[in-house]
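Board notes, transcribed. Complex of a protein with manganese (II) ion.
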Amino acid sequence: MRYPVSGLQKLDEYPSVSFSGVLTGVVLLLLGLMGRALGAQEISSSAAGQIKLANGIAVNYLKKELESSQNLVWIGHKIPDTDSVSGSLLAAFIYGGEPSIPSKVNPETRFAVERCNASDPKIIEDFSGKTVGLVDFNQSTQLPGGIDPDSIVAIIDHHAIGGSPVNIPNVINIEVRPWGSTATILADHAQLLGIELPVNLACMGLAAILSDTVNLTSPTTTEYDKAYVQNLANRAGIDDVNKFAENMLLAKSDLGGFSATDIILLDYKNFEFGGKKVGIGVAETLIPQELINRRYELKSAMEEIKKEKNIDHLIFAIVDTRENRSYLLWSDDQDKDVVVAAFGDQEVDDMVIAEGVISRKRQIGPAIQRALEN
Ligand SMILES: [Mn+2]
């Protein structure tokens, strides 16, 4: 078995670390020496132990590298969400440095922080004299203002390195895995390093996985996410994971007090597709009708935001997480063309309804990217 985490035992091993014959002996010997040099755990006799050690070495290496980083801060994308906030908290705990956020947390994260008895990372806007670790993004369009790419020393993320990745002159450590959340990757790092997460951070990690994977239903969900949900819930003492997830979704759905502009920008990301600047906002909600009723107000807010941000396209998705579909909004004909090219032309009441579409990362973003690049 690869990890001492229930649910992970049956996973396939990484093909790149399955060896055979004489080569195995040589590789294992090298791994053994490296493992000792880096303080990794003693080699076990099973092949699975070697795989764990191989991964452990990569993470041990990252830890060693970051120990020498001066004034390290961890930060997520421009507009924080639960995974980027938890990511900065977990990374700072595991690797040292200060957790930070570029601006205040959203209502879902507020709920999670309170429920978990955690605290918000500090808002940092001045990065002079700091070295920076990025969590939960790699796009230059999502880089918080004031960060000099020269000062970036690591990226821990689960997004595609497409569009316009941050242009970093130095060679740095990058840990990108195609898992459901950054928190899953960091929980795994902690596990590999033998670091036990405090109860409140285990709880924040759990909240992040549940948020990013929509309680393990999003197509981005992997077996690792499922296993670490169990593992972190145990550590955090949360028995009813579904209820926790439901309460987060309810907190996220409570948008009655927000202006249309705030709603568009609450979970918003900039991209560059086919040379075009594209903004995609999403609102995951259990009560889509509330936002559908406000769609004309939302559309005129989108018109303003588009002008203000000077972007080529702006798409907003009301994501119905209960019924597993999205209602896509646009503010002008050019954007409507993009939505129709990406999702088909089944227009109803000035929206396009996309059945089975709930993930910006896996579905909405790539569909728009394809529409604009073709
Ligand atoms: Mn994420």
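The longest strand covers residues 276-285. The longest helix spans residues 47-67.
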